[in-house]
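Issue: copy button drops trailing tokens. Both records pasted manually instead:
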Amino acid sequence: MKRFLGAALGLFLTAAAQLALAFDLDQLSEQLGKPKVVRGSFIQEKHLRALPQPLTSRGTFVLAKDYGLLWLLERPLQQDYRIDDQGIARRTEQGWQFVAQQSATAQQNRLFLAVLKGDSSGLRQDFDLSLSGSADNWQLDLTPRSVLLKQVFKAIVISGGALVQRIELQETQGDSTVLRLQDNQAGQSLSDAEQHDFQS
């Protein structure tokens, strides 16, 4: 009987410890929100039902907690974009020019920034969130609640470790986009050129 009680107590304590260590949305937000700057490279694959092979683009990015995102496309063509709370701007010979956006696109941009920054409070406004895994290996499933987003997305699946590593956008029409963020490195400051790009 003592052996049984000891085993039962051991199982209970193990379960309690696992519950105590359970990784939740607040912890994920804190983890992703720690770095002031994140740099890395990306591969984006757009899977269209009408095409046998995905459309692939590559480049680098700079995510600044206080400013937004520099999305520097290198292939198949070179084009620099800046995404922030004001919208999307494209680099031209005359400087940064804002791109006209539909309301759905603008909402996607806000979503993208919220995902990368780990702003779960922003995501909760429009999605039902389901988090599984641990701090080193987690997956966050987003199911849209708003009518506008339901028209565009069936689901969004985000996964990563210390930083976001993969984002999959599953569209209602059957197309999907897979974004892999590679060689991610956290930092605390922007270069002079990056600072200028965000503030110009």
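Record 2 (pasted manually too):
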Amino acid sequence: MDKVLITGANRGLGYELLKVYSVQKHITFPLVRSEDVAETLKKEFKDCYPIVADLSTDRSINNIVSVLSKYTDNLDVLINNAGISGTEYLIETVRTEEVNDLFNIHCLGPIRAVKACLPHLRNSKKPRIINISSRLGSLKKMSSGEFLNRNFSYSYRMAKAAQNMFTICLSQELQESGISVCAIHPGQLLTRGRSSDADMAPSVAANNIYEWVENADLDCTGRFIQPSVGELPW
């Protein structure tokens, strides 16, 4: 039975991941931004201990530590799933506020979550950090022209590319500590901010991710994966 912290667990992929881990009888720590949502999840899922925190601020670090320390001294899996989408895809209309907001959530958010969880991860026998990334963060795919004229936002692509670099840096730092760190592209999801080629329900993606993470070990660290498909280029 793993102890799993999932950020952005109130909807979409995060909520589906929470359901999968709960069905498989793991202990979950869903991170959400409101007390109302936390209470709803606590009633819906067994062995569920919601954390109310806003990952856009450093205060979230103490919030996470406080709840984790109350219920456990170890954590097996941290899934950095929280994210927001951007809109502007032309340089004339790109807003620096939007870029800043996405970098804060997709890059600084995972940094905050890792800083909060690291002492508990170090106490696990099989610690894993999973950063939910995107194919749009791949510099090789982007430079190949694969997404040309698709109107994907500057802010999302840039933030995911930066998050991927964070994954690489973190995997190299923590490898000697026995902590596996990976980036996962979940697939083209049928969510609110879906791409034009979206073809996968979040529930399917969540099951694919769960199965891959269950089998992941230190040999998987530093990889960029799409479960059920294979490895992606950075």
